[in-house]
Specification:
- The protein is α/β, with parallel strands linked by helices.
- It has a single domain (about 10-215), classed as Vaccinia Virus protein VP39 (Rossmann fold, 3-Layer(aba) Sandwich).
- It is built from 8 helices and 7 strands; from the N terminus they run H-H-H-E-H-E-H-E-H-E-H-E-H-E-E.
- It has helices at about 10-20, 25-40, 45-60, 75-80, 95-105, 120, 140-150, 180-195; strands at about 65, 85-90, 110-115, 130-135, 155-160, 200-205, 210-215.
- The chain has a 7-stranded mixed beta sheet, sandwiched between helices.
- The N and C termini lie far apart (about 45 Å).
- Mean pLDDT is about 90; it is low at about 1-5.
Length: about 220
Amino acid sequence: MAGEKSGAITGNIVSSYLDTLYISPDERLSQLREFAEENHVPIILKDTESFLLMLLKLREPARILEIGTAVGYSASCFALACGCSVTTIEQDQDMYETAISNIRQFGLEDRIEVIRGDAAEKISELEGPFDMVFIDASKSHYKEFFDLALPLCSDDAVIVCDNVLMKGMTASDEYDTRKRYKTSIRRMREFLRYINEIEYADTSVLPVGDGISVTIIDRQ
């Protein structure tokens, strides 16, 4: 795919330059990122991480809900960055166990709760409010996750969704060269239209990493 680099959509030259500006916030995170990349485990891209850390500093959330734990990289990143507590949900058993191990190595088990199970079922069992929600799971279910998380949000919470441009496929069908992702593309487009039309929220879709949406709730 033209311009693709590790999921980034800004092109090889721009992505390579941005990578030179990246500074890992913690050596242990750097090692975990290296492990994830070597083992092809999807974690937040470097420019996405930099953006999210800046957002955390601006918003200072006390509680974060994450949907999609993977190896625990982003949850650990959030907890180390702003001293918040994180509740994160992971469906895959192997990923869940790896995340638990990594979080323990960081000494963050008191501030990060990892829940094993289907997010669509587990979200409804949680108690809010959460000041921030980070969705990075099955792309075709983003609207479902968003709607389930919304009642748990504080009145001025921010909801961030990762990979919303899906390596350019959301913007143009020509990037789906094998025509394998028609349903996911359609659902992502519907989701982005949906969150842009919510009356009590403001949404921006940004070409950071593989695309992120940032929705700021305003129910006050």
